[in-house]
Structures are given as structure tokens and as C-alpha cells.
Records
---
Amino acid sequence: MQAQPVFTQVKRAENKKIAAVTQFLRENDLSIDTTVEVFITVTRNETLIACGGIAGNIIKCVAISESARGEGLALKLATELINLAYEKQRTNLFIYTKSHNEALFKQCGFYTIASVPGVMVLMENSATRLQRYASYLTTLRQSGEKIGCIVMNANPFTRGHRYLIQTAAAQCDWLHVFLVKEDTSRFPYEDRLALVRAGTADIPGITVHRGSEYMISRATFPCYFIKEQSVINHCYTEIDLQIFRQHLAPALGITHRFVGTEPFCTVTAGYNHDMRQRLADPAWDSPPIQLIEIERLQYQGAAISASWVRRLLVKKDLATIAQLVPEATYSYLQRMIAANKESLCASMTGEK
């Protein structure tokens, strides 16, 4: 009689077990995702035969040994992962998985929202959540023949970001600016949003939107946040661009998407290249979108970037920062440096 499978939770700190999971994933043509907080592993006779992980509200790194397929184990693993996510109060779930697992998760109440045929699918546990979000966007639609869009992280908001928005807005009847929602950047999301709104308040014809999980998020575009070559090589921007072109852009009537030139980040440069091709691809059953690349604003011969500002912040070089960021961002960074000094002084004197 075959031994019963054993289900175990494995946390990132359990190095020996994580090494075994990494090897198992590699044998199943997957790379381990560094954002996964906890894995559920399935062993039989102390041999790993299946696993899956949870990163935030995303289920990923699901792999099942060929020797264990066809015995209902996959459905049990999927159920365990979903139950674990619910225990952590994560009810709006996404699954980023290989195409051959699509039918399995459909049995668990998940629906495909984007796919790279034969490679991977992105699914969520709602048949209507994406449609509801798109319907909400239609209420913010503006009239005009040329409707633009920018998606940015603004970590923090610089004069370069402002220049991109101002230049794009001048070319459009209306411009929609989305701020990436993921709260994994150096500066908190609410602060970044406030700085963008303060720094663009005088630019007419724009709407600054909160981001969503359907636009450059850990669900739709993980390699934007996990800049490791092993992950980049297996990441497909088509998932993110499918959702944007087929659901979000039509809701707002977007005809053009604007980006700055990208001399620094390989991931973003690759994403911009893919956008140019996929947003205009006639094979998709949605209106084409033209990508417009705008040359970055420079200071003393160097392109202004948020990463430059962050490096200067470490050095507390406020004089140079003042040349690279709008007034609201400069004031914010001044307060941050002052607060850090006060914290340091308090710790040195024993104050709380």
C-alpha cells in the first residue's frame, strides 16, 4: 500500500528545506520566487513530490512531480494553499502558474484573466472583479481623440517624472497617470501618491489615479519587483500588457502610452520594448495603442532618476537633491532627514 502524502508548511528561514524546494522547482523548470513567504510541501516517504507558495495574495511556484500526477494530489495542494491564504486574511487571491495547472485551479473557483498560451496563466478567485474595476474606470473617462496614459512608480517623485507628465499632457486631450500600487518601495505608497499630486497640481488635463493589482503589480508583472536574472528570463510582460490593453485602456479610451527613455534598468527597458510591439499587435481583439518614448530630463549631462535621488539621500546631499526634485518632494525629504537625525539623537541619549 502506497504511503500517504505528508503536507508541511515551510518558511523562508528554514534554509535546508528551502534548498530542497529550490532544487525541486528547478527539476520542474521553475525558479524559486524570493517573495514567497511560506511554502506548502508534500512529501511521500520523505521525498518531495509537490509544493506551492504564497507571496502576499498570490499563489505561485506550484509544481507537482510527474510520478504524483493523476491521484488527486494537485487538488489537495491547491486547497491547502487557498485555505492558508484565507487564514492570513488574504481573500482576493491571484495565481500565477503554468498553463497545465489552469484546469486544476478552475476546479477551485479561479478564473483566467490573462495567459501566455502553453506557458503560463494569471488567474484570480473572482469572475467579475476585473470587470468591476474596468467599469469603475469608465466613470473617469474623458472626451478627446488623443487620450494618454503613464504608469509610474515615482520612488520618489522627481523633476524627471514631472517633465514626462507635462510633456505628455501637452500632446494629449487628456492624460491618465497611474501610480504603481505596490507598497514595497523606499517611500510608502500614500506618501508617493501625495507627492505626485502635489507636484502636478498646476498641470491641466490630467487625472492622477491610484494604482491597482491589475497594472504592474506583483501579480501581473513580478520581474519589475524581483530584478534577478533567473526570474527575468522566465518573466513575460505579456500578462501585464494583455490586461492593460484588453480591459483597462478601453475603459478609459486610451490611445497612447507614454514612457521615458530607460538608460538604467534592464527590466524596464525590456518592458518598454515589449510595450511598443504588443500594444500595437493587430492579433489582439482590442484597439491598438501607440507607445511614445520621451527623452529623459537631464541635470548636468545625466538623466534624472529616482535611484539617483535615493543615493543622494543616503549621503544627505540636499543641495543636489534640490536640483532634481520638485519643491514638495524636497520638503518631504528634508523632513525625513531631520526625523532620522532626531531618532539618532534620541537613541544616543536614551530618550524614547
Note: Residues 150 and 165 are 8 Å apart (CA to CA).
---
Amino acid sequence: MNINIFDKMNKVPGGLIIIPLVVAILINTFAPQALSIGGPTTALFKVGSSAMMGIFLLICGTSINIRQAGLPLYKGAVLLILKCIAGALAVWAVGSMFGPVGFLGISTLAFVACLTSSNSSLYIALCSNYGDASDAGAISVFCVKDGPFVTMMVLGVSGLANIPFAALLSMLIPLLIGMLWGNLDERFKQLCASAQPLVIIIMSFAIGANSSINTVFTAGLSGIVLGIISAFTGILFYFLYNLFLKKKTALGAALGTTAASSALTPAMVAQADPSLAVYVDAATAQLATASIITMLTAPVLVAWFDKRLKARASEVVEVKAPSAQEKPLPLSSQVSKGNK
């Protein structure tokens, strides 16, 4: 009998991350000793998130196409820079006013992890309806923000977190290895793409195994607030992105999403700066909640902006096209009229 658990998980928005995360939280809440028996079980399901993160970064690197050039490279670079700037502004505004604690129960760690990420899978799906090949190709550069590297870089440069250079380098090395190997070996790139869901499931479980259900309930409302804030940034990204494009697109609004994988970022950042560990559990739950909310809001926002752009384009065409009364008479008519 084939139950197809994987397919059922995949149908849930962010299911490959959220479902293992919730299952592990429940086990750790009601039967914490089950995952602490030692050996391979504990290493894989309780303390294995760091190793899984290294593999995840390696896999992310294989999706970066260094041969991509022209408009896709330009668009990808603009999208990535906009996300980095958003994270930097978040650190400056929230960090300077509230410090690491943040506001409304949302730590600065959660806020920055939210704004420096976006849902790449959803972006690609939206490209099929509202973009072209250059928009889809942009993800080969834009996907750099899928891991914790951008979040760590922003927090480290701001001084809000003590992120050693070695910690940043440790995140960059697997990414670079994956990028080089994936561009040299197409078969390895395909292998990594197939393995990514398994790595995400195990990594999500390991992170959830260090949290409790009390944290999830506490972070519920603040996670909704974080998701709404992330969704509203899509409006700002829409206008900013189009400032750099000759042909306007609605896909800038797709940046107003929180990646489901961003729920894994706080734990990775806290490994580099243990002083942030106190915020990890709440931030993980908040980011998971925000990812679900923005999965629902982003398609609506992109569709509305696309409709708005098409309406404006049709108005321009109508203005340029001469009306029936303004159309010049044929030359023969003009001649016969002149003879009269």
C-alpha cells in the first residue's frame, strides 16, 4: 500500500518544513526523552541541524548558474540588492530603537530573517503567469538569499550581533563549492535538486526537536503580525523594482514573501552568536507562521498589480491610436475633393 506521505506534505503550503517542525515540537514537548537516547538517532533528529544546514547550502549553491548573463543576471542582482537593503534598513530602524528584543514580541533577529528572505518557489510559479524567461532566470542569482548568509551578514555588519568572520565564511564555503560543482557537473546538480526535500525535512525536524509547544502558542499572534508586515513590503518592492526596469512587471510584489526555509535561519545565526539563542524558538515559530500568510497574500498582490499595469498599457495604446474621425481621407478622395 502506497500512502504517499511526501505528496500529502508537499500539498500543504510550506509543508516540508512546517509539518516535520510541528511533529518534532510535539514529541519534544510530551516525550522529550525519545530523541535523547544517543547514537545516530539523537545525532540525526536532535542535534543534526548544523550538518544538514551545510548540505542545504551546498544544494542552494548548485542552483546558481554562473553562465547566466544579460537581463536575467541584472534582474537577479537588483532583486538580491533590494532584499539586502531591506534587511539593513530593518536592522537600523528596529535595532537602534528597540535593540535585539525588537517590538510587539518580534525580535530583531526574526524581523531581519523575514525581510532578507522570500519564497523562491512561489516567485518561480508566479513567473509562469506574470513574467518571462528573464524573470525566471533571475532566480539563479536571487537564490543566494535562501540560506542564512544574507541575514548573518546584515546582522554582523550592523554590529547588532557578534558574527565572527569565520562564521560567515563557514556559510559561504558550502555555497561556493555547490556553485562550482553544480556548474561543472549537470548530473550532480540534478542529484542535489532531488535530495533537497529530504535535507529540508530532517533539518526542520532537528530544529523543532529543540523547541516546545508553549513557544508556538506564544508566538502565534506575533507571527501573524510579522506576516502582515512582510506582505505590505511587497507593495514597496513593486515600485522600487520597477525603477530599475524599462519593461515594467508586477513580480516585484513577489518579494513581499517570507520563505518557509527562513524558519531555519534563527538557529543557524544563534550558532554563530550564542547571545541570540534566547530568541530562536519564538523567531522560528513566527517565521513559519509568516511564510504561510505571505504564500496567500503574494499571488493576490501580484495579480492586482499585473492587472493595473495591463490597464495602463491599454490606455496608452488607445491614446496613441487615431480615432475614426481623425483618420485622413484616402489620396484619391482628397484629389477628387480638390477638383470639385
Note: The chain has 16 helices and no strands.
---
Amino acid sequence: MASSFDMTRRAALHVLGATPIILGAAAPTFAAPYKPSFAVSTPIHINSVTLRVRDMTVMTAFYSQVLGLAVLSADADRTILGADGVALVTLLNKPNDTPDDPSTAGLYHTAFLMPDRKELGRWLITAYVNGVPFTGFADHSVSEALYLDDPEGNGVEVYADRPQEGWTWKSDGQVKMGTDELNVDDLVAGLPRDSKLPYSAPAGFRIGHVHMRVGDTALAREFYVGATGLDMTALIANESAAFFSNGRYHHHVGSNVWQSRGAGKRPGDMSGLETAAFTVAPDLMEGLRSRLKSHGTDMAEEGSTVVALDPWNTPIRFVPGA
């Protein structure tokens, strides 16, 4: 191991809060054959997120160079980024927005899923040697995760799932998800230590889940289970966080009140999350419409897409597709 690279657990702590990097040219597009991850193979799964941003240049550079997304289209109002030609993140140019407030309902983090553990280790090395600041590392039993913030404070998780055959499902239908120390040494073992930005995301890189700040996890459960038809897969004992999914994935949606308990409607002129979108199998769309109507959820239809407001006034989009 080169003396300039020391990614032990102790050394990893020194990159928490490290100096942000200065970014240059955009990352190139990368495409290759891949097997879709389990997270995006279920009948309902995360499609994309849209963020309101105050500095389009800086935010585009972060998502293209640090996370390796390709710029699919760009104009003065919006930039769309993705992988394998699939749109994952849309940035809306809102320079006059007020900064996001963690005490409000909104985005806790967007979780970008690597196709395998080796790619997660490679990205960690790239981020580390280029001075990308982290906010945490965790072993969640079902996955291994790295945490950071984008330049405007939106949470980001980059993670890799462990094989679903090894997940532990309890008798109450909940999956075991821990928060243990990540074995960083093992994650990067045997991988090359030299890596430069811009980074290019590997084939199959997708958003595996979104984690939301909410005012009340019971209301979140009523919306995601009662109205949209997801299953609750985990509930922290004091109900400070609840997790939901489709198709026995560990979670497509997380919700917590750790900073936002009691939060009301999200302001419309605040940077951060504008909307989150799900892909829904076409044969499930009619049932989704019926549940939303029966639930009394504010909703609208934009062609074949259904848009519903969550209890905190965030539009959640449901797009038919595979």
C-alpha cells in the first residue's frame, strides 16, 4: 500500500469534514452491459429525484465529477444527469431560493446504489484520494454505506447491497438493518490506490432509495403504506424512523423525525428536494390511482404519470415503466 494512501478505519475519520475539492471538467459518459440491481428490479422502485439548487455550476460539477453522472441535457433552467442514458438527478436553477433547513420536511439523503461491492470500494478510494469530505460510514447488515453532503447540504449516500439471500427477515415482516462500524480496510482491500477525478459511474449505477425528513413517521406510514401500497420493512423502536419498500427490498423509502419532528408543509421557495419519482409496473398503476383516491390524497395526472402530494406537500411522481 502506497504511503500516500492510508484508508484504515482510523485514517478514514480524518476525511470527515475534510476540505471540499475544486472541480473542473465534466465526467465522460460510461456505458457497458450490466445486470440490474435487485433494488430497481421490483415492480415499484425509485426512478429519480429533482433538486432545487442555488448554484447550478457547482452542483452540476459535484454530481457529474464526484458521483460520475453524465450530463444528459442542460439549459439555463435545468440540468438532467444520469447513467446508462437513464435520468437520475434533475437540477432546477433557483438562485433566489432560501437555503434548505434541516428542521423542515424534505430530503435526508439520496442513496446511490453501486452494482457491486468492488465498485463501492473503488469509488471510496477515488473520493478519499481527491479530498471529498465524508459525514459517516456504516455497515447496515443488508448493505455497506458511505455518507457525504453535496455542496448545498443535501445528504448523499453511496452504497452497495449485500446479496438479498443473506438478509434476515423477522416474523413481523421487518428486515434486520443494523448501524455498525464499516470495515473500511476490507472494503478497499486489493484495489488500486490511484484514482483521479472526474469519476465515471459504472454501468448499472442507480438510485436505490431516498430517505426523507418528515414531521411524523405515522403520517409517513399512512402515505407510503396506506396510499401508495408499499410495505413497512422496519420501524425504529421509538418510531423516530420508518422504512418502506416494494418486493421485499430492504427499503426504497426511509423517513425520520431526527431533526424535523412536528414539521409542517415544506416551503415552496426552499432549495433542496423538489420531487421524488417512482417507476411503477404498468399493471399496478390503476390500483395505485384507486388507493390514492380512496385515501383522499391530493393528486393529479400528467398523461400516464400520477403526481401525489405527501403529507408535507412534496410532489411524489409515479411513472409507469419496467
Note: Residues 1-5, 9-31 have pLDDT under 50 and may be disordered.
